[in-house]
Structures are given as C-alpha cells and as structure tokens.
Amino acid sequence: MGAEIHRLRDKVCESEKITINLGYVDLGHIDLLVREGFYSNRTDLIRTAIRNQLTHHAEAVKQTIVRQTLEIGLRHYSREDLEGVKAAGEMLSIKVVGLAIVADDVSPELACATIEAITVLGALQASKAVKTALADRIR
C-alpha cells in the first residue's frame, strides 16, 4: 500500500485541544509560577509537565507500541489505498498513535468493505458519514 507515515511535530495546526479541571490551590500554584517567570503562561507549564511525564514513561510507551504493533505519527488512508486493499480481498486493522486520516473521498461503503477495526490513540479524522459507518469498529 502506498500510504506514508510521517513523524508529527509540535505545530499549532497539528494539535488537539483538551480540557482539564484543576483545584483552585493547584491553579493558584500555577499562576504563581507564571507570575514569577518560571513559565510564560498556564499552557506552557501544563505542556512542560505533560512532556516531562511522557519522557519519564518513554520506555513503557515504547514497549507498548512494539507489543501492540502500533504505527506512530500521521497515517493517511486514501481512496486509492483502500481500493487496493479491497481488490486484494483484504481488510485493514488500523492501529495508530498520533493522527489517522481517512481521505474525504472515501465512501462509507468502501470504508466498511476494507476497515475491520480502528484503534487510534490521538485523533481520527474522517468524514462524519465514514465515522458513523465504522462506529462499531472504532475502539
């Protein structure tokens, strides 16, 4: 299959927004560190804390990725890719850590005929119709 895997970099266009709830005391500590110049803003502290935890657990993450045969980064599935899978009489089990994209021109019928399961730790971008058609296969 001719699809490519790309390493993701920290760019605003390649990020996902999350929401967290913090206690007032924790939030006050964050604001104090920002005010004292340790971090430029709340987001800077939170991103740094997350990256530190990811670095701390990097070996465990690496072992899990190998054990579960996950692809890392950006994985794009084009209509041509899926038509090739269908022509070969095969089914895909998509496992991605990062961003999985099913092209906009992929029909729900083609997706159902070629995608057996989808596991994405990160984000899945696909048309609403494809996501609806594959809802029972997305984990």
The end-to-end distance, rounded to whole angstroms, is 23 Å
Shape from CA axes?
Answer: elongated
Runs in which pLDDT lies below 50 for 5 or more consecutive residues are: none
Oligomer: single chain
Number of separate strands:
4
The ordered H/E elements are EHHHEHEHEH
Beta-strand content estimate: 15-25%
The largest β sheet comes out as: 4 strands, mixed
What strand order characterises the main sheet?
1-2-3-4
Overall structural class, as computed from helix and strand content, comes to: alpha/beta
> From the alpha-carbon coordinates, what is the Rg to the nearest angstrom?
19 Å
Helix content: 40-55%
Nearest-integer average pLDDT: 89
Q: What is the count of DSSP helices, taking H or I runs of 4+ residues? A: 6
Domain module tally: 2
Q: Could you walk me through the main structural features you see in this protein, from its secondary elements to its overall organization?
A:
The chain has 139 residues and is α/β, with parallel strands linked by helices. It has two domains: 18-56, no CATH class; 60-137, no CATH class. 42% of the residues lie in helices and 22% in strands. The protein is built from six helices and four strands; from the N terminus they run E-H-H-H-E-H-E-H-E-H. The protein has helices at 24-35, 42-56, 58-67, 79-87, 108-114, 128-133, and strands at 5-6, 71-77, 92-102, 115-125. A four-stranded mixed β-sheet has the order 1-2-3-4, with helices on one face. Helix 5 (108-114) links the parallel strand 3 and strand 4 (115-125). The radius of gyration is 19 Å and the shape is elongated.
